[in-house]
Design brief:
Blueprint (H helix, E strand, L loop, with lengths): L9 H4 L2 E7 L4 H6 L4 E2 L5 E2 L2 E3 L6 E3 L7 E4 L2 E4 L1 E2 L13 H9 L26 H11 L11 E2 L6 H9 L1 E3 L2 E2 L6 H10 L12 H4 L13 H7 L4 E5 L14 H7 E3 L3 H5 L8 E5 L5 H4 L15 H16 L7 E7 L41 E4 L18 E3 L3 E2 H12 L6 H5 L36 H7 L2 H4 L5 H17 L4 H9 L4 H17 L14
Parallel strand pairs: 1-14, 1-15, 8-9, 10-17, 11-18, 12-13, 12-14
Antiparallel strand pairs: 2-3, 4-5, 6-7, 10-16, 15-16
Pfam family, one: Phosphoesterase
Organism: Kitasatospora acidiphila
GO molecular function: phosphoric ester hydrolase activity
Length: 547
């Protein structure tokens, strides 16, 4: 172990945990190359740092010469990823199994009702390009199929790369299950998805969830409440996914939810009471354009990754320049891999062991396999600075090879604040308090580099909702709902029902009539307006994309 104070004192130092969870990127894609170095002949050399467990020099487990083959063409790992993709790489449960195992299970590639045999097939990581090709064909797109094998360089993502090199990079952090956003985000809040192994149900069954998603052993927010520890949510959107949890009622929305633009101002005050702060990005103009994520800060593949870089910079600098820096830790990670290649096979996992809602469990997944590896960086003045000229080629600080998943976040919060585990997943997950072992707060940069210039890009962040709605493509508006839009409609319906608890039947009738992207977009705008009228802070700003 690294030298430092006894682990028992970590909870005395850390009074504030901040968590920023971005969207849909794998470790190799975001940080596998960005933390390394490129030789004069163009060869990628992995980043070199110190293993916090052994204290010895080690290298970042980044990509090498891996490839996928499709239609007679080899697609190799390459440097330089596009900032925006024209087609979203699929990442539903069946898509991920195709990516990991090279063959679909049953049904067509887009049959999200396909079943699961009960045992995950052998993983050879051979189907990422094939799966993206299937999606591009459905969308009639000539998208670059090799984009899912591409890796950002440090010049493309200088903000995240600097934090990864400066503090602690976790290169064995896996998403919670091989599937999409919603169940993976639920694991971050509850160490469980209550059996959900796909995106939200079709609209005809959403009505049963108007009270929010319930978990047998509750969520981290309920555990903090029981301990008398304050928490907050900061969001770039009026409809953050976290609000779909049971218990996020109107009084909570009015007192615990804030717009991310207010974070720096709140932290500048001498008193900041929240022990736990969850930060959810903006999902862009999806609130008015339907399937358009542009203008957000989530780093969704359909949006410019540099906007998410700006959010990371904003959050870090707000904490770093506040009087609470020396009592804080910031964790930056991603919900799931978003269909991008990663060369490390997901390991087995401990099932949560709680009640599985049969309505949620479309594939019969047992939650005994983790999802694809995602980026994770732990930032704190208590992360030791062990960079030394005595380590040849060292360009990173701590490179932690400990196996983590989303349950590790909760396990760490539980260690710091004396909470009991929620499920068997976080009970058995490794926590990362050993990364907070410096003998004294270390120096750290007060500011981070500006995001890269990704021009040309659409800069419509100042358009108001009416203008965005007016320029929406009518052809898009008539498209049937996607899994993504079903999720946003579900969140909106849950919030709508909380604003009007006596109108559940009307809400069910309203969402049951939504069949197109345009109808969904109009409903999302309506609910956001209702939230703003009631004083919910996350809904107070015009424009979907500001950070």
């Amino acid at each position: 172990m690294l030298p430092g104070r006894l682990q028992g004192t970590v909870s005395e130092r850390i009074q504030h945990v901040f968590v920023l969870v971005l969207e849909n990127r794998s470790f190799d894609h975001m940080l596998g190359a960005a933390t390394g170095a490129v030789s004069p002949d163009g060869e990628l050399r992995p980043g070199i740092g110190i293993d916090p467990v052994t204290g010895a020099a080690t290298t970042v487990d980044g990509p090498g010469e891996q490839r996928n083959s499709h239609a007679g063409t080899d697609y190799r790992i390459r440097l330089g990823a596009p900032f925006v993709l024209p087609v979203d790489p699929p990442h539903e449960f069946c898509d991920v199994q195709l990516q990991l195992a090279g063959t679909p299970i049953s049904g067509s590639p887009h049959d999200d009702r396909c079943t699961y045999s009960g045992e995950y097939p052998p993983i050879d990581l051979s189907g990422f390009v094939q799966n993206y090709a299937n999606e591009a064909a459905v969308k009639h797109s000539s998208a670059d199929l090799g984009a899912v094998m591409a890796c950002f360089t440090d010049r493309q993502v200088p903000v995240l790369a600097m934090l990864a090199r400066e503090f602690a990079l976790c290169d064995r952090w896996f998403s919670a299950l091989p599937g999409p956003t919603w169940p993976n985000r639920f694991f971050l809040h509850a160490a469980s998805s209550a059996g959900l192994d796909r995106s939200p149900d079709p609209l005809e069954t959403i009505g049963s969830k108007l009270a929010g998603y319930h978990f047998e052993h509750g969520t981290i927010y309920e555990a903090l409440d029981a301990k008398g520890l304050p928490w907050r949510v900061y969001s770039g959107d009026a409809l953050p996914q976290v609000s779909a949890l049971a218990g996020m009622d109107l009084p909570v929305l009015l007192t615990r939810y804030h717009h991310v633009a207010d974070l720096a101002g709140h932290l500048s005050r001498r008193r900041y009471d929240a022990a736990y702060t969850f930060i959810e990005p903006s999902y862009g103009h999806v609130l008015t354009h339907g399937a358009d994520f542009q203008g957000g800060s989530s780093q969704h593949p359909l949006d410019d990754v540099t906007r998410g870089e700006a959010l990371i910079k904003q959050v870090y600098e707000a904490i770093r320049q506040s009087p609470h820096w020396e009592s804080s830790v910031l964790v930056i990670t991603y919900d799931e891999h978003g269909g991008f290649y990663d060369h490390v096979p997901p390991p087995t996992a401990v099932p949560p062991g709680d009640v599985i809602d049969p309505e949620n469990n479309a594939h019969g997944f047992r939650f005994d396999r983790q999802g694809v590896r995602v980026p994770a960086v732990v930032v704190s003045p208590w992360v030791p600075d062990l960079r030394s000229p005595g380590v040849p080629g060292q360009n990173c600080n701590l490179v932690d090879h400990t196996q983590y998943d989303h349950g590790s976040l909760l396990a760490t919060v539980e260690q710091l604040f004396g909470l009991e585990p929620l499920t068997q997943r976080d009970r058995h997950a490794n926590h990362f308090t050993h990364l907070l072992s410096a003998r004294a707060p270390r120096p750290a940069p007060r500011t981070l580099p500006d995001p890269a210039d990704s021009s040309p890009q659409m800069d419509d962040s100042r358009m108001d909702d009416d203008r965005l709605a007016a320029v929406a493509d009518p052809a898009v508006a008539e498209r049937p709902l996607t899994a993504t839009m079903r999720g946003f409609v579900e969140t909106a319906a849950i919030l709508h029902a909380r604003l009007h608890p006596d109108q559940h039947e009307q809400v069910r009738h309203r969402i049951g009539a939504i069949t197109t992207v345009g109808e969904a977009a109009r409903y999302l705008v309506e609910v956001r307006g209702r939230l703003a009228e009631r004083g919910v802070r996350t809904a107070r700003q015009g424009g979907a994309g500001g950070t």
